Amino acid sequence: MQRVHDAHGVRGGRGIHGIHDDLGNGKAQPVSREYGHLPVLLQKEYRRLKDKNHYYLVNGRVLTPYRQIAPGGVEIKDGYIARVFPMDGVELHDGDGVLDVRGAIIAPGLIDLHLHGGGGADVMDGTAEAFASIARVHAQSGTTAIVPTTLTSSLQDLSAVLAAFSRVKKEITTGARLLGLHLEGPYFSPARRGAQDGRYIRNPDPGEYRELLDKYPEIIRVSAAPELPGGLELGRELRRRKILAAIGHSDATAEEVVQAIEAGYSHVTHLYLGMSGVKKINGYRCAGVIEAGLLYDDLTVELIADGKHLPPPLLKLVYKCKGPGRIALCSDALRPAAMPEGEYYLGAEGRGQKIRVKEGVAWLGDNLAGGVVTGSRLVRNMVELAGVPLKEALQMMTATPARILRLDHFLGSLDPGKAADLVVLAGDLSALATIVGGRLLD
Predict the structure, then answer these.
(1) CA dihedral for 381, 414, 2, 96, sign (positive or negative)
(2) 152, 198, 245, 247: which is deepest, by most CB within 10 A?
(3) Range of the domain at 245
(4) Hey, which residues are catalytic here?
(5) What pTM, to 2 d.p., does this model score?
């Protein structure tokens, strides 16, 4: 046996990479930009551990994310977390696979519950190659589980994408997990359509959506405007099927949002974007979806924390109102994520709307169309732009989205028995290693 303890000077909350942040009792401090030599070390370890079913991550700063263990480690066996432990006096057997992360952060894998594409592919392409590319690109930034999201489209195009996803979901075994599909549309308010194609926006049709939900159990989330005729009935149907009902692209008043909550809606899609705020009706000011999302504890919200869609004061306001347990970070990433700036299609290649990526965000004409920032960069933005402690910023992309999606029994935290989906993060919160189901990804 070999005894391993504090092998690389990891003490308290700081590792050799100089990660400086408060973990929950005050203001977050700037995140270090030091990388050290860990990426080279990981490349060597990959070759040795890639095919192992049982190995250890050691000498890390473990964030579960609710607590810190530093120095600490994680034992991974047969695709699951077997143990989370402090390094003090831990004993490993000779021949055990060991990945020494040398003070880097070991955290749960990130969960992105709203994205449309990446790496030059879009969900609406509806091909195995597109879904595989999206899963692979997002895993590179530490995201281990994703909910691919459709766009408002014709019923024919939507059905084709659903059928393609149903066929290929279990075939794609590299990259981030494909948790299920999110239907973003077509049941939206025309006044709040944002970058959604207005030609296909329509009111909820029970015959249409029941047929889709019956045929494709892969649908795990639907965003809709509950104030539309039939919108509340849709919410009740989704609740009956245990599908996440989210308020999105909606012009509802706060009073209509209360009715939506009663009917089963529990989440708000990309808060502040494509939704009503305070407005005048018959001369009186009325609160909208934004204010209701901030006010009601029955609603969770998601934020596109790319540093472009929402300025720091709004990120801070939402954090102050909702806290880490009711905020999920999402990328809303489009085809150009992890691609050079330039022109791309929003939606199916050659048939969607043309967008341009400049200054780190996608534009449809003069309006923002979606994100190109993915994974751990979203967490870093919440730390740096909103002053959120790292532990809580991680919760917003691990434990909280897992609970929102009703998958917290399986994902979202480092706890024995849960899936071994993890990310190793450098001092600047870039992803050094991504592990899905115990497999180290290239």
Answers:
(1) negative
(2) 247
(3) 110-404
(4) 332
(5) 0.92
